């Protein structure tokens, strides 16, 4: 695991102490990440880029390259980027896409 990811987890632990329980459950991924590192952890100056390239680079910096992650990441290395499957302002950790070709997100391309 990268140092950056470890320090983000450590920071999240501290932030969680200050958060109400209601803020912890069911939040979309953009919000859980904002609680850890602010909008700036993905967006330069907190503003979204036009093409998502900056945001995608931020994901890789913390989580690593797709080729180093398990299925379904490795099979799409060099073909897709994180944002093709993970919709940060819509999905919670629980309703991220499933590792199943029948998942609607996969079926967009493989259906
Ligand atoms: C974990 C990364 C992440 C964090 C943290 C995050 N965003 Fe985003 N946001 C994204 C991605 C990815 C997109 C879509 C890519 C793009 O179009 O730039 C996006 C899109 C947006 C958009 C465009 C409209 C939309 O919903 O698609 C706005 C506005 C936005 N973010 C504002 C914010 C604000 C304000 C915060 C902090 C409260 C924030 N974001 C935190 C990743 C993040
Ligand atoms: C500043 C570091 C950082 C950035 C930038 C970041 N993440 Fe994360 N992310 C974390 C940490 C820490 C967690 C919580 C620990 C974990 O689940 O790995 C997390 C959790 C997640 C989860 C939920 C894991 C689960 O429990 O199912 C997903 C999915 C995710 N990140 C995807 C992304 C994507 C996609 C981007 C880019 C838009 C991104 N992250 C940007 C640090 C980061
Ligand atoms: C082809 C669609 C797809 C792409 C592209 C993708 N993911 Fe995922 N991601 C998934 C699916 C599906 C899961 C759930 C895997 C499981 O349940 O085993 C997942 C799970 C995760 C998790 C939770 C922990 C784990 O490894 O299961 C994180 C963190 C994550 N993705 C981050 C990323 C990042 C960062 C990128 C870009 C570098 C990315 N993903 C690109 C589909 C994708
Ligand atoms: C944005 C389009 C897109 C999405 C979304 C997508 N894929 Fe793919 N996937 C591709 C492309 C393109 C390839 C490489 C060409 C090929 O082999 O079909 C590929 C290759 C694969 C492969 C390896 C080749 C094969 O067919 O055996 C698997 C397995 C796979 N995808 C599963 C998934 C799963 C599971 C999901 C959902 C979590 C998913 N894909 C989401 C576009 C996508």
UniProtKB/TrEMBL annotation:
Cellular localization per UniProt: Periplasm
Record-linked SUPFAM superfamilies: Multiheme cytochromes (SSF48695)
GO CC annotation terms, alphabetical: periplasmic space
Primary location recorded for the protein, binned into one broad class: periplasm
Gene3D superfamilies the UniProt entry points to: Flavocytochrome C3, Chain A
Cofactor: heme c
Keywords recorded for this protein, A-Z: Electron transport, Heme, Iron, Metal-binding, Signal, Transport
Domain Tetrahaem cytochrome span(s) in chain numbering: 33-110
InterPro entries per record: Multihaem_cyt_sf, Tetrahaem_cytochrome
GO molecular function, one term: metal ion binding
Signal peptide limits: 1-25
Protein name, as recorded: Cytochrome c
Source species of the chain: Paraferrimonas haliotis
